[in-house]
Amino acid sequence: MLENIVIIGVALLVLGGVFFIGLFVGVGSALDMMDADNQMENDLYCFECEIEMPVKEKNGRFYCSNCGLYHGSEI
Description:
Keywords: Membrane, Transmembrane, Transmembrane helix. The chain crosses the membrane at residues 6-31. The structure is a single chain. By secondary structure, the protein is an alpha+beta fold. The chain has one helix and four strands; from the N terminus they run H-E-E-E-E. A four-stranded antiparallel β-sheet has the order 1-2-3-4. A hairpin with a 4-residue loop joins strand 1 and strand 2 (51-58). The protein starts with a helix and ends with a strand. The relative contact order is 0.10.
Protein backbone atom coordinates (compact mmCIF):
# COMPACT_ATOMS: atom_id res chain seq x y z
CA MET A 1 0.00 0.00 0.00
CA LEU A 2 2.80 2.41 0.89
CA GLU A 3 4.58 1.53 -2.35
CA ASN A 4 1.53 2.57 -4.39
CA ILE A 5 1.33 5.92 -2.59
CA VAL A 6 5.03 6.57 -3.22
CA ILE A 7 4.70 5.62 -6.91
CA ILE A 8 1.68 7.89 -7.32
CA GLY A 9 3.49 10.73 -5.50
CA VAL A 10 6.57 10.42 -7.71
CA ALA A 11 4.39 10.24 -10.83
CA LEU A 12 2.56 13.42 -9.78
CA LEU A 13 5.85 15.20 -9.14
CA VAL A 14 7.18 14.17 -12.55
CA LEU A 15 3.97 15.24 -14.29
CA GLY A 16 3.99 18.56 -12.44
CA GLY A 17 7.61 19.17 -13.40
CA VAL A 18 6.94 18.35 -17.04
CA PHE A 19 3.92 20.67 -17.00
CA PHE A 20 5.89 23.62 -15.63
CA ILE A 21 8.81 23.04 -18.02
CA GLY A 22 6.34 22.99 -20.93
CA LEU A 23 4.62 26.11 -19.62
CA PHE A 24 7.86 28.10 -19.39
CA VAL A 25 9.10 26.88 -22.78
CA GLY A 26 5.75 27.76 -24.35
CA VAL A 27 5.71 31.24 -22.83
CA GLY A 28 9.29 31.82 -23.98
CA SER A 29 8.45 30.68 -27.51
CA ALA A 30 5.38 32.92 -27.60
CA LEU A 31 7.46 35.92 -26.53
CA ASP A 32 10.04 35.11 -29.21
CA MET A 33 7.29 34.95 -31.84
CA MET A 34 5.88 38.30 -30.70
CA ASP A 35 9.33 39.86 -30.92
CA ALA A 36 9.80 38.43 -34.42
CA ASP A 37 6.41 39.87 -35.48
CA ASN A 38 7.42 43.30 -34.21
CA GLN A 39 10.67 43.08 -36.16
CA MET A 40 8.83 42.04 -39.33
CA GLU A 41 6.60 45.13 -39.09
CA ASN A 42 9.69 47.29 -39.65
CA ASP A 43 10.85 45.28 -42.68
CA LEU A 44 9.48 45.79 -46.18
CA TYR A 45 10.35 44.02 -49.41
CA CYS A 46 12.78 46.11 -51.39
CA PHE A 47 12.55 45.56 -55.15
CA GLU A 48 16.02 47.00 -55.66
CA CYS A 49 17.73 44.76 -53.05
CA GLU A 50 15.26 41.90 -53.77
CA ILE A 51 14.97 40.98 -50.07
CA GLU A 52 13.13 42.17 -46.98
CA MET A 53 15.07 45.09 -45.53
CA PRO A 54 14.50 47.34 -42.53
CA VAL A 55 13.19 50.79 -43.41
CA LYS A 56 14.30 54.21 -42.22
CA GLU A 57 11.97 57.18 -41.84
CA LYS A 58 12.92 60.59 -43.17
CA ASN A 59 10.40 63.45 -43.22
CA GLY A 60 7.50 61.00 -42.76
CA ARG A 61 8.56 58.85 -45.72
CA PHE A 62 10.06 55.37 -45.53
CA TYR A 63 13.18 54.36 -47.39
CA CYS A 64 15.15 51.12 -47.63
CA SER A 65 17.97 51.24 -45.10
CA ASN A 66 20.29 49.52 -47.59
CA CYS A 67 19.80 51.23 -50.96
CA GLY A 68 17.53 54.18 -50.14
CA LEU A 69 14.60 53.14 -52.39
CA TYR A 70 11.36 54.96 -51.47
CA HIS A 71 8.76 52.54 -50.02
CA GLY A 72 5.79 54.83 -49.54
CA SER A 73 4.45 56.43 -46.41
CA GLU A 74 2.73 53.37 -44.93
CA ILE A 75 4.04 50.43 -42.93
